[in-house]
Amino acid sequence: MVNMTLIIPPHPVGEISQHKGPPVFTQDERYKMVRAIKWVDEIVEGAPYVTTLETLDKYTSDFCVHGDDITLTVDGKDTYEEVKRSGRYRECKRTQGVSTTDLVGRMLLMTKTHHSNIGHSDYQQHTDNFGKGPKGHSPWTGVSQFLQTSQKIIQFASGQEPQPGDTIIYVAGAFDLFHIGHVDFLEAVSRLSDKPYVIVGLHFDQEVNRYKGKNYPIMNVHERTLSVLACRYVSEVVIGAPYAVTRELLDHFKVDLVCHGKTEVHPDKDGSDPYAEPRKKGILHTVDSMNSLTTDSIVQRIIKNRLLFEARNQKKEAKEMAVIQAMKRREEEKGKERAQAVL
């Protein structure tokens, strides 16, 4: 078996703003988020937006990997042109329906059921604003529906069961727009034990909407499942966990400790305390993540810069459409050349 090291180079805010538009997260937030992804071995801070052979050699990298969408510079050139020419480029298929463009649009919707209302007129308006340029539709920037499969979950899950001596810690919540506030909380939870086994209970969309209101959750339960599973501090996820942490749940997972952050605990449908059982058993622990970032904060960032994000995505779409048209023209010219050669 060949040992591989995955090095991720998050680009500086200045270069992202120049080539793509304003980023949602700060530079430090993005660095910390990437470090928390369980497959990442190392990150390179301040990496240039255009990947060159010099950059690959500097970090002793054999090749550069990117998704099958195209990434363009501010002047419309392929970001990976140099490494592609040298044969040191590899491509992975992007997960269908996972799009920052789409998530940004959802944050601007007023409907409470956007995650299950693809055909709704509000959602169509979002598609027009965020995933469609004036001259067509790009397959890379457009809005598409995320389709969960058992194989995707298997790829993200650790597959590790609790071992003797592990402290089984249970936390529950929406974990919507999985962000650095969640990461800091989960890291703090994992530090409560030398051998933590952290189980995250994710509430169904309808439950989240009941206690959070507005247009939450932004991400549906399938998207939230993969986001949480990708975190290095998480061992297992309960998809559609009950809102109340019951005795049956605690016994089933043999939970040693139940943790909650310093955020508000909303009552259950009947007005009862959802943490009554672990509180009674003396295993409820409040964890201070020392991070005040919330999903609401991120939504407010998007709303504040709405016009900038709309312009960013429409500009990105226009550049992608220009590349598509150029690719079509090249294929047509090659077809004519082949036809002439036959004649």
Short overview:
By secondary structure, the chain is of the alpha/beta class. Helix content is 41%, strand content 11%.
Report on this model:
With about 350 residues, the protein is α/β, with parallel strands linked by helices. It is built from 14 helices and nine strands. Helices cover about 40% and strands about 10% of the residues. The model is unreliable at about 125-135 and about 140-145 (pLDDT under 50). The strands form three sheets. A five-stranded parallel beta sheet has the order 7-6-5-8-9. Strands 1-2 form a two-stranded parallel ribbon. A two-stranded parallel sheet has the order 3-4.
Indicate the topology.
Blueprint: E1 7-8, H1 13-19, H2 27-35, E2 42-43, H3 53-58, E3 64-67, H4 81-85, E4 89-92, H5 100-107, H6 121-130, H7 150-156, E5 167-173, H8 180-190, E6 196-202, H9 205-212, H10 221-229, E7 236-239, H11 247-253, E8 257-260, H12 276-281, E9 284-286, H13 295-304, H14 306-342
Parallel strand pairs: 1-2, 3-4, 5-6, 5-8, 6-7, 8-9
Helix pairs in contact: 5-6
EC number: 2.7.7.14
Enzyme class: transferase
GO biological process, one term: phosphatidylethanolamine biosynthetic process
Gyration radius (Cα, Å) is 23 Å
The N- to C-terminal Cα distance equals: 51 Å
Number of helices in the DSSP assignment: 14
What's the number of extended β-strand segments?
9
Based on CA inertia axes, which overall geometry fits?
elongated
DSSP helix fraction: 40-55%
Main sheet: strands, sense, barrel: 5 strands, parallel
- Mean pLDDT across every amino acid position: 83
